[in-house]
Amino acid sequence: MTPSTAPLITARGLEKAYGRTDALRGASLTLGAGEILAVTGASGSGKSTLLHCLAGIVTPDSGSVRYDGKQVENLSEAQRTELRRTDFGILFQFGQLIPELSAMDNVALPLLLAGVRRAAAHQQAADWLGKFGVYGQARLRPGEMSGGQAQRVSLARALVTGPKVVFADEPTGALDTLTGEQVMTTLVQSARESGCAVVLITHDAQVAAYADREVVLRDGVVKADEPWAAEHFSRAEVRGND
Ligand SMILES: Nc1ncnc2c1ncn2[C@@H]1O[C@H](COP(=O)(O)OP(=O)(O)OP(=O)(O)O)[C@@H](O)[C@H]1O
Predict the structure, then answer these.
(1) According to DSSP H, which parts of 177-234 are helical?
(2) Helix 147-159 and helix 103-113: axis angle, to 10°?
(3) Residue 45 Cα, ligand 1 centroid: separation in angstroms?
(4) Whose CA is nearest to atom 28 of ligand 1?
(5) Beta bridge partners of 15
(6) I want to staple 217 with a disulfide (CB 3.0 to 4.6 A). Which of 7, 41, 130, 181 is the partner?
(7) CA-to-CA distance for 183 and 179, rounded, in angstroms?
């Protein structure tokens, strides 16, 4: 079921406070290479903060994140930026496409920054826009698209460089059920083909069901960590104890 071997990411005892709000209170988890992990939990339970710590965007107050032999919190800002550029694909909750650029240019940009020639970058960007069903919007700027289209363009941008890990905050949040299923199928298929791991935040049990494993956060702590096939541990029970 899970194609993972040694952990690609190991997070231990992550704590993060914003002022008086404890967003994370000792969260720990592992992610295997090529593993698809769903992170679920109530609003405000710390999911986005956890994802941002794993991706090296936010530095935890304490605890550690180890990625591929590197201690992420010990890297310089420049090294972390480089890591995000080379190894990670990130889909933020609100897309964060560059408003002045077309969909095509937004998706091609990470490739151009990596030194890929313009024609090849645009060809790959076109392929990814096609996979996510938004090639027709290639010339549009984010403000000229629907939220769901912008979300799919953001996913294409997250995947275009062939990352080792994709971090996706609510990848189907702005999509109707059918489009959400199509997007999840494409995301999972692409990840399987390339051996890319995915950390996916979702409120939607149907979306979480695409994952190999689900972790449930509650009040900044991982409350349950279960493989999807674990029949002895019902998801309803986990949630029912709230
Ligand atoms: N930049 C910030 N400044 C202040 N407080 C923050 C910040 N980011 C998160 N928080 C707070 O930390 C807690 C955890 O937030 P986080 O966004 O990680 O939760 P979440 O589970 O992703 O929520 P949601 O499902 O609503 O997106 C919340 O109480 C939130 O208000």
Answers:
(1) 177-194, 205-208
(2) 20
(3) 7
(4) 44
(5) 25, 62
(6) 41
(7) 6
CB contact at 8 A, 131 and 190: yes
Contacting residues for 220 by C-beta, under 8 A, at least 6 apart: 15, 16, 22, 23, 24, 25, 26, 27, 45, 46, 49
pLDDT digits (tens, 9 = 90+) for 72-119: 989 999 999 999 889 999 988 776 899 999 999 999 999 998 899 999
Question: Probe ligand 1: pick from 15, 25, 48, 52, max atoms within 8 Å of CB?
Answer: 48
Out of 20, 49, 215, 222, give the residue to mutate to test ligand 1, the one with the largest number of ligand atoms within 8 Å of its CB: 49
Q: Which atom of ligand 1 is nearest to the CA of 41?
A: 21
Tokens of 112: 């151009």
Which residue shows structure tokens 């541990």?
233
Q: Which strands form 70-71's sheet, in the order they lie side by side?
A: 21-32, 7-18, 62-67, 70-71
- 194: how many CB neighbours lie within 10 A of its CB? 13
Rounded CA gap, 95 and 233, in Å?
34
Asked if 35 contacts 3 with a C-beta cutoff of 8 angstroms, the reply is: yes
Q: Alpha carbon 118 to chain centroid distance?
A: 26
For residue 173 and ligand 1, the question of a CB distance below 6 A is answered with no
pLDDT digits (tens, 9 = 90+) for 169-221: 999 888 888 888 988 999 999 999 999 999 999 989 999 999 999 999 999 99
Is the ipTM higher than 0.90? The answer is yes
**Within 13 A of 61's CA, how many CA atoms are on the CB side?**
13
- What is the CATH number that goes with domain 1-85+205-242? 3.40.50.300
Number of other CB atoms surrounding residue 131 within 10 Å: 19
Q: Which pTM was predicted?
A: 0.88
